[in-house]
Amino acid sequence: MLQPAKILILTYGSRGDVEPFIALACGLTARGHTVTISSAEKYGDWVKSFGLTFEPLSNDTIDLMTTPDGIAALEGASGFLKRIAAGARLAKKSGGLNDGLNRDAWRAAQAVQPDLIVFHPKVMAAPHIAEALNVPAVMGLLQPMIVPTSEFPVAGMPSLPIPGYNKLGYSLVKLSYSAFRKSVNVLRTEILKLPGIRRRNEVLFPRGALPIKTLHAISSWVIPRPKDWPDEAIMSGYWNLKSDETYEPPASLQSFLESGPSPVYIGFGSMTVEDPKALQEVLVEALRKANVRGVLSTGWAGFDALESDDILSISDVPHEWLFPKMAAVVHHGGMGTTAQGFRAGVPCVLCPFFGDQPYWAQKSVALGVGAPSVPRKALTADKLASSIHLAVNDAVLKKNAHDLALHLQSEDGVRIAVAEIETSLAKVVER
């Protein structure tokens, strides 16, 4: 029988980059392992509320996203040239911050002395720390963006019928990581006392590390596992947090849900916007033009609080509890929110801002569970109202959403991921 192990999980980004790893940590803990999550300090209380140990990383890089440049870079309505200029300024600022993040990750690893490291690819220090400690590393992926395949393009790139195009996208992703080679080599040579890396592929897959397994927290019902993936690339299924059976909603929300037909949820999670008031007015108008009631999540967008007969503002309410009670869900297309929307069994409308969000928007339509998406840069009350009306009333969308949810609810992605991690641990014991 496998002995309990000390496992360090390193993840960074928005709440959607952290929540699946909390679910994984809970699954590992249930198997007797001692698990520490290391992420941005702002998530400490949330992580600890699950009885998990927490090691903080700096908030600085995340805080950049709430600056004017961060908002401009994220929001599709900012205009292409403005977003490019903002992105360039952010890149200059992020270099030093990434060095600090690497040092924070090493400090966390020293505190834990793990037997295995699970990491989000945003924490590029992780595989190098694993090499220095001579322990296995497992990459947790929330999007299909790292392991190349000829079957579909990298998340975020359009589908084009060009020979070799699909694999080219994955090469471009690896090329983008080469920008961090200098920072990684500072960590390796000055702190970890390892030789520097020379190839861009070694930013995430250093040659001196043990073989790195890639666990994709995605369902094969949403993206079938490519036939040309290597054996160490796993499609486990979504890593979903167990529902809190003791959760009680705010009285205002419970009353609103009971006072009329099922409403439509609108929320953009960790997306920030330049003019929250203007966007909120568009969303409210869209709900009223679609003749539906609405639940509007304030999120990071900073919307004003609203409470009327047909619209209610909310803050943090578990999506797993809320979404099945909606007539449809409208959101930005973050991977975590998308997964919860699919599991809820109700149609969706995605309003992607940037990154992989257009990919999930396209996927929702291709699966037959999403009405036409309305990208943030093209968002108007009329367009959104039209898609909401279709999502709420189309019988085919409703049936498809229901059927997909049944498939997803029958999966246990955490169980599969835990088994794969334990296999990696067992191989180390056998050495």
How would you describe the overall organization of this protein?
The chain is an alpha/beta fold and 431 residues long. The protein has 2 domains: 6-238 and 411-430, Rossmann fold (3-Layer(aba) Sandwich), CATH 3.40.50.2000; 251-409, Rossmann fold, CATH 3.40.50. 44% of the residues lie in helices and 12% in strands. The strands form 2 sheets. Strands 3-2-1-4-5-6-7 form a 7-stranded parallel beta sheet, sandwiched between helices. The two termini are 16 Å apart. 46% of the residues are buried. The model has no long low-confidence stretch (mean pLDDT 90).
Q: Numbering strands along the chain, what is their spatial order in the largest sheet?
A: 3-2-1-4-5-6-7
Helix/strand/pairing category: alpha/beta
CATH topology of the largest domain: Rossmann fold
Note the beta-strand portion: 5-15%
For the report, how would you describe the main beta sheet? Answer: 7 strands, parallel
**CA-CA gap between termini:** 16 Å
Please provide a brief summary of the model.
This protein has 431 residues and is an alpha/beta fold.
Key traits:
431 residues; Rossmann fold; 2 domains; seven-stranded parallel beta sheet; 16 helices; 44% helix; globular; Sterol 3beta-glucosyltransferase; EryCIII-like_C; UDP_glucos_trans; Glycosyltransferase_28
